[in-house]
Amino acid sequence: xxxxxxxxxxxxxxxxxxxxxxxxxxxxxxxxxxxxxxxxxxxxxxxxxxxxxxxxxxxxxxxxxxxxxxxxxxxxxxxxxxxxxxxxxxxxxxxxxxxxxxxxxxxxxxxxxxxxxxxxxxxxxxxxxxxxxxxxxxxxxxxxxxxxxxxxxxxxxxxxxxxxxxxxxxxxxxxxxxxxxxxxxxxxxxxxxxxxxxxxxxxxxxxxxxxxxxxxx
Length: 217
Known about the structure:
This protein is mainly alpha-helical. It folds into two domains: 9-71, Arc Repressor Mutant, subunit A (Orthogonal Bundle); 76-208, GntR ligand-binding domain-like (Four Helix Bundle (Hemerythrin (Met), subunit A), Up-down Bundle). Helix content is 66%, strand content 6%. The chain contains nine helices and five strands. It has helices at 11-24, 36-43, 47-59, 78-99, 105-123, 127-143, 148-161, 171-193, 197-210, and strands spanning 33-34, 63-66, 70-73, 166-167, 215-216. The strands form two sheets. It has a three-stranded antiparallel beta sheet. Strand 2 (63-66) and strand 3 form a beta hairpin. The longest helix is centred in the last third of the chain and has 23 residues, at 171-193. The chain is globular. One of its GO terms (molecular function) is DNA-binding transcription factor activity.
């Protein structure tokens, strides 16, 4: 069955979101070829928005354009992964500090509730749930940064580069890493309540250095 998109502007952005979501959730795997004709047939659009979306994703390093073959899903090497997480950390720290004066008590309470829910997900090894809750946690203050360019950059990196769950050959190590990561969430909220700008930025930068311990899949 064809998956039809609503014909509303901007159509290219809708196609972009459609493709990036399939990359993020693993439906499009590394080195898999994606063609304009395939996209057009799948979601009922013309070649122009399909081509523009593919070109945009290639520009963001999520696809690779290969001469005479078209576009393939980019396979990230280990150094590229580490470099990307480092960039996310810097941007996330900026978002956290920028949001400080805009966060409400309701925002902080919601973040604390999400931390508790993440702890439950870790306990029962529901890592897909953990990642979803973690994204919700970060979304709260990223949105409150009131910097749309920053929001777009972070969303592009977080939701496209990162995948839908955590896996590891070492379950004990993964459990420890995610527990440590969630403890950093606790620290972030603590420092936000204390208006401690320096430590907010420090913890968020360090936070993204712990993630590469687990394979993203």
